[in-house]
Amino acid sequence: MKIVLGIESTAHTFGIGITRGNKVLANVKKNYTTEKGGIIPVEAARHHEKHYKEIIEQALLEAKLKIENINLIAFSQGPGLSPCLRVGLQAVKELHQKYKIPFIGVNHCVAHLEVGKAVTKAKDPVLLYVSGANTQVIAFEGGKYRIFGETLDQGTGNFLDSFARYIGLGFPGGPKIAELAEKSNNYIELPYSVKGMDISFTGMLTKLKQMYDSKKYKTEDLAYSLQETAFAMLLEVAERAMAHCNKNELLLGGGVACNKRLKEMANIMCKERNAKCFIPENSLLVDNGAMIAITGAKFYNPKKKYILDIKPYERTDDV
Ligand code: AMP
Ligand code: MG
C-alpha cells in the first residue's frame, strides 16, 4: 500500500496529509486568517510560503516517517487562488526534484467527495459541498463527476463570513453565527432563493444587513433565521439531486458542514426519505491535505504522465 503525501493550498489553508490506504497517518494544517476583511490572495500565498516547510516536517514527524518513505505526492491543482496554488506546486517541484518522488495533481472538489467515501461507508453518494468559496451538489453519474446544483453568486461560507463581518464578529464568521443562532428559536422570514437546481445568497445578505441596521431585530434571531433559511435551501437542492440521480446516500463536505444545525437538518432530510447521511469528522470536512492524498492514491496510474502545473479554474465536470 502506497504512502502518500497530500498537499492542499487552494485558498486560506496550507495542509499536509500523509496517508496509507484510507488510513490518515498525519493531517497538519495552518490557516491564513484576518482580523478584518476577507482573504487577500497574495497575502495568503505569503503565509503559505512562510510555513510550508515546517508543516511538511511536522506531518512527517506525526506520521513517524521520513520523506524517503513517501511513495507518491498528490497536490491540489484547482480550483483555487493562483498565488496559493503556486506555493503547493513549488513544494511538489522541490520534493520531486530532490527525492524523485512521483506526483499527481488532484481536483479539490472531487477530493472532498473521495475522502468522504474513503472514511465513511458511503458508496455512491450525492455530495453537498459547502465551503467558503464553493457551494456545489456533486455526484458521479454517467461515467463522470457532475455538478447538479450550485450557488449562482457566493459560497455559503463567504456568505456567513460577510454577514458576520458586517455585524462585527470577525473571520471566520460561520462558527460565530452558529453560536449566536443557538440562543434563539424565533424564526423571521428571509428571502429564500432556489432557482431550478441553483441557489443564491446575495438577496438574503442584503436583507439581513437592512434588518440589522434597522435595529428592530435581535442579532441572535437574525443568525438563527439565516441558518434555517440557508440550510433549507442547500438541502432542498441536495434532496432533489438525490431523487433525480436515484441515489440514497448523502455526504457532507466543506468547512460549513462542521455546523451542528446543518448536520442535524441533513440527518432529518435523509431519515424522511429513507436515505443514509454520511458526515466525516470535522478535520476531514475542512480543507486538508489528507483528502488530497487519498484522492491522489485512488487515481494515480504509474503509466500516465502528469504535468506539473496548476488549474485555477478547473470545474468538477471537467475532471
Ligand atoms: P473551507 O473553505 O472548506 O475550509 O471552509 C471555511 C468556511 O467554513 C468558512 O467560511 C467558515 O466560516 C465556515 N465554517 C467553519 N465552521 C463552521 C460552522 N461551525 N458553522 C458554519 N460555518 C462554518
Ligand atoms: Mg474546500
Short description:
The protein is of the alpha/beta class and 319 residues long. It has helices at 41-63, 82-99, 108-119, 156-166, 174-181, 202-213, 219-245, 260-272, 282-285, 289-299; strands at 3-8, 13-20, 23-31, 72-78, 103-107, 126-130, 135-141, 144-150, 194-195, 198-199, 249-253, 276-278.
Structural notes for this entry:
- The protein is an alpha/beta fold and 319 residues long.
- The chain folds into two domains: 3-108 and 284-318, Nucleotidyltransferase, domain 5 (2-Layer Sandwich); 121-279, Nucleotidyltransferase, domain 5 (2-Layer Sandwich), CATH 3.30.420.
- The chain is 44% helix and 21% strand.
- It has ten helices and twelve strands.
- The protein has helices at residues 41-63, 82-99, 108-119, 156-166, 174-181, 202-213, 219-245, 260-272, 282-285, 289-299; strands at residues 3-8, 13-20, 23-31, 72-78, 103-107, 126-130, 135-141, 144-150, 194-195, 198-199, 249-253, 276-278.
- Strands 3-2-1-4-5 form a five-stranded mixed β-sheet, sandwiched between helices.
- A hairpin with a 2-residue loop joins strand 9 and strand 10 (198-199).
- Helix 1 (41-63) runs parallel beside helix 2.
- The longest helix has 27 residues, at 219-245.
- It is globular, with a radius of gyration of 20 Å.
- The mean pLDDT is 96.
- It binds adenosine monophosphate and magnesium ion (MG).
- Magnesium ion (MG) binds at residues 108, 112, 131, 254, 287.
Q: Order of SSEs, N→C?
A: EEEHEHEHEEEHHEEHHEHEHH
Tell me which ligands are bound: adenosine monophosphate, magnesium ion
Q: Work out the strand percent.
A: 15-25%
- What's the number of helices? 10
Lateral strand order in the biggest sheet: 3-2-1-4-5
- Total strand segments: 12
CATH architecture of the largest domain: 2-Layer Sandwich
The name of the CATH superfamily of the largest domain reads: ATPase, nucleotide binding domain
Q: Supply the CATH class of the largest domain.
A: Alpha Beta
Radius of gyration: 20 Å
Q: Percentage of helical residues?
A: 40-55%
Shape: globular
Low-confidence stretches: none
Q: What would you call the structural class?
A: alpha/beta
The overall average pLDDT, rounded, is 96
Integer count of domains: 2
